[in-house]
Recover the amino acids of this structure.
């Protein structure tokens, strides 16, 4: 049986349904996987930018040194996920933080299909710093939080 080729670029376009919740698991990486995200100044700046860029609401988030995992939901459905991510990355970059580097051009997104996916994915994400030997317990990782309660 032939193997399917791996995607080189993610497929974008989250279907937003008025009859069902839209929760998206999003991963955004730094350019060339450079480690600069896991710091208090970057975390504070991202939280401020996400709060101001309110077309989508951020739920749980976790900053690893070279990538971000977050869950989001549309607040203003007329703004695509791609437009929102582009907007907040640009706003963050305009802050010119000494600690910050550059973003990878694209991102990965997955629409969650069931309520248990949100919980299961978050539990998996919470373990990342421990799997990378950055902390001994997930709750010890300081670069995580929740901005909005995203309900299924």
């Amino acid at each position: 049986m032939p193997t399917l080729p791996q995607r080189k670029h993610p497929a974008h376009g989250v279907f937003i349904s008025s009859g069902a919740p839209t929760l998206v698991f999003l991963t955004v990486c730094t350019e060339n996987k450079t480690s600069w995200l896991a710091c208090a100044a970057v975390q504070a700046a991202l939280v401020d930018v996400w709060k101001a860029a309110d077309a989508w609401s951020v739920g749980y988030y976790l900053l690893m040194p070279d990538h971000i995992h977050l869950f989001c939901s549309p607040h203003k459905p007329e703004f695509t996920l791609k437009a929102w991510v582009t907007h907040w990355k640009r706003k963050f970059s305009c802050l010119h933080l000494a600690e910050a580097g550059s973003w990878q051009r694209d991102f990965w997104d997955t629409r969650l299909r069931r309520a248990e996916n949100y919980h299961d994915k978050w539990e998996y994400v919470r373990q990342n710093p421990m799997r990378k030997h950055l902390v001994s317990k997930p709750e010890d990782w300081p670069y995580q939080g929740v901005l909005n309660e995203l309900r299924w």
Notes: The beta strands are 24-29, 56-63, 67-74, 108-111, 144-146. The CA atoms of residues 39 and 143 lie 7 Å apart. The chain has a mean pLDDT of 89.
